[in-house]
Amino acid sequence: MTSTETKKEEFRKYLEKAGVIDQLTRVLVGLYEEPEKPNNAVEFIKSCLGAPSDTDVEKLKQENEELKGKVGDLEKKVEELQQELENERANN
Predict the structure, then answer these.
(1) Measured between alpha carbons, how far apart are the two ends of the chain, in Å?
(2) Angle at CA 79, nearest 5°, toward 76 and 80?
(3) How far is it, in rounded angstroms, from Cα 81 to Cα 2?
(4) d(Cα 80, Cα 86) in Å, to the nearest integer?
(5) In whole angstroms, what is the distance from residue 53 CA to residue 51 CA?
(6) For residues 41 and 31, is the Cβ–Cβ distance under 8 A?
(7) What are phi and psi for residue 69, nearest 5 degrees?
(8) How far is CA 76 from its chain centroid?
(9) C-alpha span between 37 and 30 (Å, rounded)
(10) pTM above 0.90?
(11) Where in the chain are the domains?
């Protein structure tokens, strides 16, 4: 075999060993067996493989921003309480 053919065969073996070929086969068979073919086959494949949809990503970004705000508020509250505690210790 030539070097290119050897590399291709090694890569095919790697994909097979990693389970990629089986997974892709299952997804493609699932797409084939769909009674109503989806308009966007790539999105169908992505969803079968567990990729987040665009709406999931946007929702997660929004939730992340909200949580960052809460963390900031809580950090500020901790600082205030630490300052109060230091003031009480200084007064006693």
Answers:
(1) 86
(2) 90
(3) 72
(4) 10
(5) 6
(6) yes
(7) -65, -45
(8) 30
(9) 10
(10) no
(11) 1-51, 53-92
Q: How large is the angle between the packed helices 20-33 and 3-18, nearest 10 degrees?
A: 70
Predicted confidence at residue 15, as pLDDT, reads 96
pLDDT in single tens digits along all 92 residues of the chain: 689 999 999 999 999 999 999 999 999 999 999 999 999 999 899 889 888 777 778 888 999 999 999 999 999 999 999 999 999 999 87
Question: In this structure, are residues 34 and 26 in contact, taking their beta carbons and an 8 Å threshold?
Answer: no
The token pair that represents 35 in the structure block: 């009674």
Distance CA 36, CA 64 (A): 36
Rounded (5°) CA angle 28-29-32:
90
Cβ proximity of 9 and 27 under 8 Å: no
* Residue 1 pLDDT: 60
